[in-house]
Request: fold
Amino acid sequence: MNNISNKCTYEKWDNCPEYFYIHWPFCSNRCHYCDFVALEKHDEFVEKYHESLCWQIKHFAKNFYKPEIKTIFIGGGTPSLYPLNLFQNFINLLDDNFCLKNLKEFTIEANPEDITKEHLENWKDLFVNRLSLGVQVLDQDILANLNRKQDIEKIHKVMEMAPNYFDNISVDLILGLPGVDDKIWLETLQTVCKWPIKHISIYLLTVYNNTKLYFRIKEKKIKILKDDKIVDLYEKTVDYLRSNNFEQYEISNFAKKGFESMHNIAYWDRKTYKGFGLGACSFDGKNRLQNENNLNKYLKNSNREKFEVEFIQESLTNDQIFLEKLMLGLRQNKGVDLPSMLYFLDEHKKDKFLNKIKTLKSDGLIKISGDTICLTLKGMMLENELILGLI
Ligand SMILES: C[S@@+](CC[C@H](N)C(=O)[O-])C[C@H]1O[C@@H](n2cnc3c(N)ncnc32)[C@H](O)[C@@H]1O
Reply:
């Protein structure tokens, strides 16, 4: 990557972004497939981290006078482990510094294992209006084999309780976890579709370098599904979800009408957003920024005396903006506007790009309607390769 200037501590925001991401990095166990900024069993740091997070909020808020926020997303790690008394302080601080009156969506990512009635009551009282539950697959043994301690009965109990508090519930599933067969996957989909939920994310398993899963595969201790099996299951999944009124609006996301995630759409539409917490990312319209992702450094440099959390800054070139627009646009069912993409290209590149579009169309990978191009189902499965071919 070029254009990266490391070790910045100064951010320049002309306007306050309307979308906030908050990172809660702590987990009770680290799942073997996980590559997020997540820390297992770090209880002694929880209170200090909460304080640092509060300092980051205060420091940022100094630049503005109570701007209005549209969406908040607390992700992790496992935000359902945020102790409720501290979470309440944190939300009060947010409420004091920003205007939450017109907040449209406030999501908390939660692990069903942690959820009690008290959590649901508190979250609901503290502006949260959307629950995102990490379910992954409804098979305890498959999850246990990946170091995810999940009692399936507990998930069912949560699904009885949670709809009494939240109308907008989303469930995360991972397609392709080792050990999953057609029967287990289709039964998972059938059960999930019967729950009173509004949104489902289906992530294709990514094997990240240096995760436990990566080494177990390399050492031939665990096997993942073949690509053609995953393609087959993905197609069946899209059909099944559609027949249950979950419309696909992005490669991995399906929603009942009107329940598409506003926060995620803001990312894909390249709206500006601000990330608070360890390793959290922000976008100011020109630069991609990432907070310090070493816990000790983050804690050491964000306190009452100073707030000097270093972050990585990457200024986007025109080529990168073109690529981002293409990638983030094509992920969504609404696709991208062709004339605004051509605007980035000189005559020679324009011809090449249009020829590639024609080929992809005749291969059944993209659809063109009017000025808009979007991926077909087959194209969505091959999104990365397809975009590399286009540029
Ligand atoms: C930031 S993670 C938080 C999960 C949360 N700690 C939990 O335990 O439910 C959000 C989601 O990303 C998905 N995910 C995590 N690692 C993945 C991987 N390697 N491949 C595909 N999806 C993954 C999972 O569905 C997960 O629920």
Summary: The chain has two domains: 4-268, 318-390. DSSP finds 15 helices and 18 strands in the chain. The two ends are 17 Å apart (CA to CA).
